[in-house]
Amino acid sequence: MHSVGVNKILSGYFAARCGRIDNMMKNPIDCQHFVLKKLLSSAKQTLYGQQHDFVSIANYGQFVQRVPINDYQSLYPYIERMIKGEKNVLWQGKVAWFAKSSGTSGSKSKFIPLSQESLWYNNYQSGRDTLSLYISHRPDSKLFMGKTFSLTGSLRSFDINSEAICGDISAFLLKGLPFWVNLLKTPPYKIALMADWNEKLECFAQHMRKQDVRAMAGVPSWILMIVKRILELEQKDNLCEVWPNMELFMHGGVNFAPYKKQYQHITNEKLCFWQVYNASEGYFATQDRLVSDDMLLLVDNGVFFEFVPLQDFVCKDYSNAVSLEQVKLDQNYVIVISTNAGLWRYVIGDVVRFTSLNPYRIIITGRTTNFVNAFGEELIVDNAEKAIAFACKKTNAIVNEYTMAPIYPSSTQQAAHQWLIEFEQSPQSLSQFAQLLDEELKNQNSDYEAKRAADILLQSPLVHSVPRGTFLKWLTSRNKLGGQFKVPRLSNDRVVIEEILSMVNK
Description:
By secondary structure, the protein is of the alpha/beta class. It contains 19 helices and 21 strands. The strands form 4 sheets. Strands 6-3-7-8-9-10-11-16-15-14-12-13 form a 12-stranded mixed beta sheet, sandwiched between helices. Helix 1 packs across helix 7, helix 11 crosses helix 12 and helix 15 crosses helix 16. The longest helix is centred in the first third of the chain and has 22 residues.
């Protein structure tokens, strides 16, 4: 009876929040104007605000004139001062928490400031919006009668300042939640914040197998690994035999398409898949309909958005950055954010495309560091994901992980794309899979089709199957275990693919 009462109260609370979300959807431009004004006012006395004269900025045009487009390298000198304990640098007051991020390529970690404002008015508020939208579509939900299982990273202090803490954004979110919210989450702190990922994953599985899990949240690849271990421990084929009341999986971080078939195979049709766009830099969008591939842009949660056309960004021309009211449908944009943690006109590396302008909905199509343009083909992750999904459907294959890089022409080798694919279920014919992949890439991308014409410039793709566990082994060798680390899908250089090939060929 107690859990029934809790579920009724919380369901009512989240349903009541939908009025604010409706206002955001109906007045997105006003919301964004207010967010920018609030950000500038809050940071006007900071070091960065004084250097760029925030106090006299009256509109978006002046903001663009005063503040340059930034990447991590250009903001790092300020972030380093914050890590050392200096106040009022990029954001008001003292910021002591830093979300660790590696992006999808490169070995250098990035430390993203996490202020109290960004924690409460971006991350938590966006999370509440997600649950409100879900409850509005599932008024009979019994979500809060059980536990939500989320995969969490760990935390540690900096060597240069023991008071400053860094770690996975998920660990900070867990640490900052009110105690009563944590009563609805699982596993407990002592497991959730463990640093050793190999030990942690096993502890997760052992603990979770006996819980009444109603929802899961996290990166699909990592959650799937734990779920499969639980099924192995319980000697079951379907997760609903372990967690009969499970109804929701909130996923983000990577494209879900390659994993959806595997989840459907081990669950049932009652499980709702709900996509969110939450990163170390902030929580930006959420699915707002039961069945949808796109997400509602959250324009009233402490983040001001700008967008640079991808073709301009590739040419390093940032002058065509536009605010929300100037975006167009079906065009690839590099997303630029200004946040209530002090990231100013910051390029986070994601590429998005608008599917709707009323309300503003987006899909993530790739990353600025995760595309291939070795021969003018301009292949993005969205093209690759759709082509792999097509080839899988036609050959009844299931893909766990993959990466691709170009083979540059030499005296003995013609130009081609080389794919390393880890199959959960292999196709009967790998050559047929490669042919279908190639055909769908041509359908998805006219530049790729042109470069593949008559095999003159770009040869047929070379697809290699690697053993199960290969990509996990590579991540482990690079000390990249954890939800914030992902396998680079597409690369213009051969660093990643050569490391994996050398490991496979040992």
